[in-house]
Amino acid sequence: METQPSILVIDDQPDNFDVVETLLDGEGYQLYYAPSGKQALARLNSFQPDVILLDVMMPDLDGIEVCRCIKANPQWQTVPIIMVTALTDKEDLARCLGAGADDFISKPINSLELRARVNSMLRIKQQYDNLQALLKLREDMVNMIVHDLRNPLASIVLSTEILRFTNLSLEKQQQKVEQIAIASHHLQSLINSLLIMAKLESGKMVLNYTEVDLSTLCISALADIEAIAAQKNLTLISELPEPGGIIKVDAAIFRRVLDNLLSNAIKFSPSNSQVILRAEYLAAGGAKLQIADSGLGIPENLRQSIFEKYETGTLNPEVSQIGLGLAFCKMALDAHHGTITAEDNYPKGTTFTVLLKVA
Question: What is the pTM (predicted TM-score) of this model?
């Protein structure tokens, strides 16, 4: 349910508020009233309206000064102000605009004009709010991506420094080289996912459908994560159909979906547990894949939002996560006209189910 736009009317005459309320009746606005500039400023400390209707001629603190005070405060200055005035002199109107007012309307107020000006200011406020939300999302996105890219990069730098300046046995050297290879693969995977997501989102990605053996694709994906799983002493279990069955997908993108889901399962699985990859062909055509882990599980209220870009919920504060891998899977499967869902893996963990329709 959408929130009603709020309008604060600042006027020392209560009758004028009644007039505004009558003229805006039926528009779906939530109206509030302040009988003086001082009371309005005090109220703004705990409440921010979407638009302010501000009378110019008020005792004590007039509308011009109130407008200056509001526009001087960074917390309030984005709220559009419509000055309501009986003044018609060009200099007086210029003073209103000079004080920071966004628009003005002359008394006596005309219903059609009032509604049009309020709607105009609400559009401007909505555009500003949308822009701020986008900038906040972009800032959060950059911070989270940098955080997740930094982890494998730090591992590469640290292992390289140890190899350069420390006398290690051949076995230890091999372990560090393996750590560098794993971190490099993770780093490359993150970057590739970002690039593919950008293309999918812009509509510029054209899927290259080819016939792929499902079992062979799954076995290859499992083989590539064996070393990562071994670091946590995880057992990889595969329940796959006999080789020879064919699905039609963009092999490179669908393989990345598998990589992301398997990596996600490994990331959230505790040591000495297992990750299961199941696959089967459907009688109606297409295929069904499931990746099951033994992690903490996903609360039911988060099972949709985890597929949104940069949304992670509060799955595990000890695990680095930017909400990118699952969003990529969702976008890639949408492009394939497939689906992905998450459900409980009893007695503990999560099962991600991928359904592919006939291409």
Answer: 0.53
Tens of pLDDT, residues 10-61: 999 999 999 999 999 888 999 999 999 999 999 998 888 999 999 998 888 8
Q: Give φ, ψ of 110 to 5 degrees.
A: -95, 135
Instruction: List the domains of the chain with CATH numbers.
Output: 6-109 (3.40.50.2300), 136-202 (1.10.287.130), 209-356 (3.30.565.10)
Kindly provide the residue ranges of all beta strands, DSSP E only, lying in the chain, ordered along the sequence: 6-10, 30-34, 51-55, 81-85, 103-106, 209-213, 235-239, 246-250, 274-281, 287-292, 339-344, 350-356
Query: Given this model, what pLDDT does residue 197 score?
Result: 66
**CA atoms lying within 13 Å on the CB side of residue 273:** 18
Other CB atoms within 10 Å distance of the CB of residue 127: 10
**Which of 51-55, 325-329, 336-340 is predicted with the least confidence, judged by mean pLDDT?**
325-329
> For residue 273, what are the CA distances in angstroms to 162, 166, 265, 276?
31, 34, 11, 10
For residue 234, give the nearest of 275, 292, 194 by alpha carbon. 275
Burial class of 309 by CB neighbour count within 10 A (0 to 12, 13 to 18, 19+): middle
pLDDT per residue as tens digits for the range 290-326: 999 998 888 887 777 777 755 444 444 444 444 567 8
User: The tokens of 31 are what?
Assistant: 């109206």
- Show the CA angle centred on residue 133, arms to residues 307 and 68, nearest 5°: 165
Average pLDDT, the chain: 85
> Element (H or E) spanning 118, and its range?
helix 111-165
